[in-house]
Design a protein that fits this description.
elongated, single chain, 191 residues, mainly alpha, 0% strand
Length: 191
């Protein structure tokens, strides 16, 4: 496998995963800030669909990677796991940049916090247990206002670490399935 093509393929595949996760992040942020209860159910369905799609894409790309190794060599667990982490890193860079641009550039972080607080307050008012939730919401709002505004790099890094954590978890399963031992006795093919 040529080194340049390996990096290009990994970046492209990670980019596809990153675009899917970035679109999901934008949708979930929009849905949360809207404060509409009806959209919360849709967000749950979307989240489940994205988790399944994320796993499927990681598995598919990793299967393609593992298929490049001949049966005589096999492919060890650590190689497959590192490939999943590489894909997750590439995806995380895209998600982190998209998150930073959306929260700091498009919305503005202060406006984001205000809309988030208003959405939570609206959801609590629509809830039947709003009186019992109110003290917790006041404490949450106070903590949000007191917290320092994260920098653009901190926001981007949050997307990267989140993607790597999900990829690391999924990678344990995928690497266990896709790794294989070398086959000692392979039939010779006639030329």
């Amino acid at each position: 496998m040529e080194q340049k093509s390996f990096r290009t393929v990994a970046a492209t595949q990670g980019g596809v995963i990153g675009l899917v996760l970035a679109a999901s992040m934008w949708f979930e942020t929009y849905t949360t800030l809207s404060g509409r209860v009806g959209l919360m159910g849709l967000m749950l369905v979307e989240w489940v669909a994205v988790v399944i799609l994320h796993y499927w894409l990681l598995n598919r790309y990793t299967k393609q990677y593992a298929a490049q190794f001949p049966a005589e060599e096999g492919v060890p667990f650590y190689r497959v796991y590192c490939y999943v982490l590489l894909l997750s890193l590439c995806a995380g860079v895209i998600v982190g940049l998209a998150q930073a641009v959306y929260l700091h550039g498009v919305l503005g972080y202060g406006a984001y916090l205000e809309q988030y607080a208003a959405a939570l307050k609206g959801l609590a008012e629509q809830s039947s247990a709003s009186s019992s939730i109110e003290p917790m919401l006041k404490q949450l709002f106070a903590q949000l206002e007191a917290a320092p505004v994260p920098s653009v790099l901190q926001t981007a890094w949050g997307g990267v670490t989140g993607s790597i954590l999900y990829g690391g978890f999924f990678g344990l399963i995928i690497a266990a399935v896709q790794s294989r031992r070398p086959e000692l006795f392979t039939p010779k093919q006639e030329e």
